[in-house]
Fold:
Amino acid sequence: MAQKLLQKLKKEESELLKSRRELEAHDSFADIARVSDNANPDIEVDGQNFHEKTEVLRSALDRNLTQIRRAANAIKKGKYGRCDICGQEIPLARLRVFPTATLCTECRQKKELEKQKIAKKKSILTSR
Ligand SMILES: [Zn+2]
Structure:
C-alpha cells in the first residue's frame, strides 16, 4: 500500500510542479502586458488582480507540495500514517480522504480548538 501511495504522491507532486511552472509563465506574461500597455489603466488593474490571484494560487500550490513531500518522507522512513502529536495510527478512512494527513482526528480537533482560542485571544487584544 505504501509503495502505491508513494507513486501517487510523486505523480501529484509532478502535476503540482507543472501547474506552478504554468502559473509563473502566465504571471510573467501579465507583467510584460502591464509594462507595455501602461497607457491603459484598465489593463493595469486587471494585471494587478491577476497577479494577486496567481500569488494566492502559488502559495496554495506550495502548501500542497510541502504536505506531499512530508508524506512521501514519512513513507520512506516507515512512519507514514502515524499522528505527529500522539504517535497513534491515523485511521485508514481518514488517510484515504487526506493522504497527506499528519494528525489523527482527535489531535487535529484539539489543534483546531487551540487555534480558535488563540485567534479569539488575539482579537480581544487587538480590539482593546
Ligand atoms: Zn493524535
